[in-house]
Design goal:
154 residues; three-stranded mixed beta sheet; binds zinc ion
Length: 154
């Protein structure tokens, strides 16, 4: 699995899978995801309990720009660092709000290490992700989570 910046359009913020389930249902889904990926980060391979304290269940969405559908295509286990790269905009915001540049620096370093790239490439990737985000944020997205039980076995 590649490490890419995936910015959720502003018009789709708050529309996530977690909010559609009860807390206990979501825990079941999350645990099934961690089990499926052997308690390892799907992207960098960091292992829960060994390399990292915890993992996150990350929803992978496909945005169909023709039909305006936001389709759930996968749920993967990711470590905090990979998660911080994927949600780059949110990381930037947190780093700014807490007035702690080291948060963003750690994420930048992780991104460059995993993708074996330099800062110029990172800057370009951020720029492109933001451009796409701006375009997608002008539209309203219709959620399609019909594949959820094909993705997780619960
Ligand atoms: Zn990772």
């Amino acid at each position: 699995m590649k490490l890419e910046i995936e910015l959720i359009p502003q018009t789709a913020w708050g529309e996530n899978l977690r909010s559609m389930f009860t807390a206990s249902q979501w825990t079941k889904i999350r645990n099934a995801v961690y089990k499926k990926y052997d308690n390892k980060c799907t992207i960098c391979g960091a292992e829960k309990g060994k390399d990292v304290k915890r993992l996150n269940a990350h929803e992978v969405w496909e945005f169909d720009d023709k039909t305006n559908k936001q389709i759930l295509v996968n749920i993967i286990a990711v470590c905090d660092r990979c998660h911080g790269c994927i949600h780059y905009g949110r990381t930037q915001q947190t780093s700014k709000e807490l007035n702690d540049p080291s948060i963003l620096e750690r994420i930048n370093e992780h991104y460059m290490k995993i993708n074996n790239c330099d800062e110029a490439k990172l800057t370009m990737d951020i720029f492109n992700a933001k451009l796409l985000w701006m375009q997608r944020s002008t539209k309203k997205w219709e959620l399609d989570i019909s594949k959820v039980f094909d993705i997780v076995d619960i």
